[in-house]
Amino acid sequence: MERQVLLTGAYQYTEEQLHMIEKMGWKVTFVKNELEPIGIPTDQFDAVICNGLFLHNDIAEFKKLKMVQATSAGLDRLPAEYMEKHHIHCYNAKGVYSIPMAEWAVMSILEICKNAQSFFRKQQEHTWGKDRSLLELTGKKVCIIGYGDVGHETAKRLAAFGTEITAVNRSRVEEDGVISRWLPLDRLNEALSETDIIILCIALTEETRGLLNADRLGLMKQGSILVNVARGSLIDEKELISCLKEGKLRGAALDVFETEPLPAESELWEMPGVIICPHNSFVGDNVSERMFSLIYRNLEKMLKDTV
């Protein structure tokens, strides 16, 4: 029986990669723009590789669908409840983006600790000025909220700086030689009050939406650092701006926002100590190879499982 897969422009395939998928036994249909109705019959597809396809196309019309491979680490753009009810296997981009995201988080933390923005400005102004307020990472307490691939890769890198790391996660985290302890999500408040650096890596769900609200931002230590590489809606952005204005935080590194692109009128653009990245931390020169390897393995697995 011929199996059909719909590929979208969420991933840029080479001709060789398309041939590899076809040689495996799939009939391939490619649609470049997934952010609009795709305009072709959809009831023939057994598998779909996409990102935001089902924000603009009704998954119920994909009547033969048995597998969806997301090209994103998060699954919040997929109709998870429908997929579970209809026994559609769902895979995210596990492990694909975690390394560049972890590297970006560490870079940003160091930039804030070392007041890099002020030195950049002084260089542009040709100004020679010392700064006696720089911080070391050694001995700092780090809280990583969400200890999946991104959280683990970030922890491995920060551990090398002599930090003490707490992982806050919905499910238990086993001892891995990197973290100092694990706390369940319902003990997050306890971790926030004693942590120097908070890093958000957790998935966005109805449970975690607005996770860092006014009360929790208020619990954070004076002079602490906040990093978000997960989803913008995990933080109440208005309250974050208030905290920054009050000088509660030393700085914030934000790769994601409640509204993207970040509106030009947002106060975050001009705030000292705030690093703005346009949802770009996932980019790295090895990402494409890892993504295709994952796509290929899961398509191969589905063929074997449905023989």
Name some characteristics of this structure.
307 residues, 7-stranded parallel β-sheet, 9 helices, alpha/beta, single chain
Give an overview of the whole structure.
The protein is α/β, with parallel strands linked by helices. It is built from nine helices and twelve strands. Strand 4, helix 2 (80-85) and strand 5 form a beta-alpha-beta unit. The longest helix has 19 residues, at 287-305. The protein is elongated. The mean pLDDT is 97.
Q: Unreliable runs, pLDDT <50, ≥5 residues?
A: none
Mean pLDDT: 97
Oligomerization state of this entry? single chain
What are the secondary-structure elements, in order, as H or E? EHEEEHEHHEHEEHEHEHEEH
Range of strand content: 15-25%
- Helix and strand content put the structural class at alpha/beta
Please estimate the helix content. Answer: 25-40%
Number of strands: 12
What gyration radius follows from the Cα positions, in whole Å? 22 Å
Task: Indicate the overall shape.
Answer: elongated
Largest sheet: 7 strands, parallel
Structure at a glance:
The chain is of the alpha/beta class and about 300 residues long.
Helix and strand topology:
Elements: E1 3-8, H1 15-24, E2 26-31, E3 47-50, E4 67-70, H2 80-85, E5 89-91, H3 98-113, H4 116-125, E6 141-145, H5 149-159, E7 164-169, E8 181-184, H6 188-192, E9 197-200, H7 214-219, E10 224-228, H8 237-245, E11 249-254, E12 274-276, H9 287-305
Parallel strand pairs: 1-2, 1-3, 3-4, 4-5, 6-7, 6-9, 7-8, 9-10, 10-11, 11-12
Helix pairs in contact: 1-9, 3-5
